[in-house]
Each structure stands twice: as structure tokens, then as C-alpha cells.
Design a protein that fits this description.
Pnp Oxidase, Chain A; Rubrerythrin, domain 2; binds flavin mononucleotide; single chain; alpha+beta
């Protein structure tokens, strides 16, 4: 049976024969991990109808909450936009469908990002949905800013109906027009809610997810 190790600093659970050298959540070293001893039989399986764990007062601590929030699943996308004749794009995981009818999506973009500035200015963006071979695109658009480099200088793309660039290496894309009255200022980010006005499935392949990217990067 696979062993489980709990980080005593942040409660992150690692599965494997040994604890990790460094906790991926809080950075604590191997020595901070303790093995989780599972209770056997009916009780552990919850078969008695009684819960197998209880609140212990730690649940409101940020370091206890964080490993839980990291269990939310995401896709991984390149959000592109325009401003005048300029194009830019960034990697984003915080994109999701809000409603199917009308077709609306939301994207959470950091206010410091050039892409966010472009979306605010132009009111349009495209969600480029990556396939599972899209690691290079995640890196290309996710680790440097369009303020320092022209990210489209060496990336193949076509211009969509909104003017936003659609990158060649996506399996599907959605072009979106921001609903200005539904843009939410959430502090560090804006949450843009937008109408999907165009889009296409180009290749019927498995999309990239954040979990898959982290496992295989
Ligand atoms: C895996 C990954 C996921 C990311 N998710 C988001 C996100 O959801 N929202 C966001 O604002 N930035 C996110 N980023 C960070 C931006 O992609 C990054 O800051 C980018 O350099 C901004 O570029 P820009 O200034 O050209 O817009 C992510 C980066 C990576 C590598």
C-alpha cells in the first residue's frame, strides 16, 4: 500500500515510499514530514457511519487551507488580446465557463499583466485551449511579460474576428467580448465575464490541464 506523509507545517499530504525533499506547498524540508498511519477496517472506510476525522481548530489557518485550495482542478490556456495594432497573450488557469446559454466565460487576470491592460482597453480576448503537447506555449506566454518582449514575434497565429490573435498551436479557441458592467475588481486581479462571439474546435484532442502540466513539465 502506498505510504502517505503529512507536512507538519502546512498539512500537505504526499504519497510515495519516502517523504519529498521539500514540501511543494510551503517549502518545509523532509524532516518536517510524518507518516500518516491509516486506521484499518470499517472505521477507516467510514463504514460505521461515523466520520473518520474531526475539526481540530486549524481549519481557518491559511497554511491549512492552502493545500485544499490547490486541489481545485483547472485547465490551462493562453489568453490573448489586442490594443490598437499591438498583440499580446499570457498563460492563465483561471478561465472557466460561466453559462452555456448565453455562452459566457470568465477569466481572472492580474492587473499588473499587459494582457489584462489590453483586455481592459479593447474589451476583447481569445481563450486559446492548449492540447497536452502545449508545454512550450505555457512557458512562452507564462514566464515573461509582453512589456519586455514581443511574444508574437516567433509564434504562428491568425487574427480572429475580434482582432485577437489565435495561436496556431491550440486545439480549440473562444473569442470573447467583455461585458463591462460584469467586470469584477477582485483586488490584485480583474475577473472578466465575457460573451463568446466566435470559436472553433480545431483538433479533437485532450486539453491541457494544470495538473497534467505540473506532472509532466
Ligand atoms: C501555469 C501558469 C498559470 C498562470 N495562471 C495565471 C492566471 O490564471 N492569471 C494570471 O493573471 N496570470 C497567470 N499566470 C501568470 C502570467 O501568465 C504571467 O504573469 C505572464 O508573464 C503575464 O504576461 P503579460 O504581462 O505579457 O500579460 C500563470 C502563469 C503560469 C506559468
Amino acid at each position: 500500500m502506498v505510504k502517505k506523509w503529512r507536512c507538519t507545517v502546512c498539512a500537505y499530504i504526499h504519497e510515495g515510499p519516502e517523504p519529498p525533499d521539500i514540501c511543494p506547498v510551503c517549502g518545509a524540508g523532509k524532516e518536517f514530514f510524518e507518516e500518516v498511519k491509516e486506521e484499518s477496517g470499517e472505521k477507516a472506510a467510514g463504514g460505521s457511519g461515523l466520520p473518520t476525522w474531526q475539526l481540530d481548530g486549524s481549519e481557518t489557518q491559511v497554511e491549512v487551507i492552502r493545500p485544499a485550495i490547490f486541489k481545485i482542478s483547472y485547465g490551462l490556456y493562453v489568453v490573448t488580446s489586442i490594443n490598437g495594432g499591438r498583440k499580446n497573450g499570457q498563460t492563465a488557469n483561471t478561465v472557466f465557463q460561466v453559462t452555456d446559454n448565453p455562452m459566457r466565460v470568465a477569466a481572472g487576470l492580474n492587473k499588473n499583466n499587459l494582457t489584462c491592460e489590453f483586455v481592459r482597453e479593447s474589451g476583447v480576448f481569445a481563450v486559446n485551449i492548449l492540447g497536452q503537447d502545449g508545454h512550450d506555449m505555457v512557458r512562452h506566454f507564462g514566464f515573461r511579460s509582453g512589456r519586455d518582449v514581443d511574444k508574437f514575434a516567433d509564434v504562428a497565429y491568425v487574427t480572429g474576428v475580434t482582432g485577437a490573435p489565435i495561436i496556431e498551436k491550440c486545439i480549440a479557441y473562444l473569442e470573447c467580448r467583455v461585458l463591462p458592467e460584469k467586470t469584477v475588481d477582485v483586488g490584485s486581479h480583474y475577473l472578466f465575464i465575457a460573451e463568446v462571439v466566435a470559436g472553433k474546435l480545431k483538433v479533437d484532442a485532450e486539453p491541457m490541464t494544470y495538473a497534467y502540466y505540473r506532472r509532466t513539465k
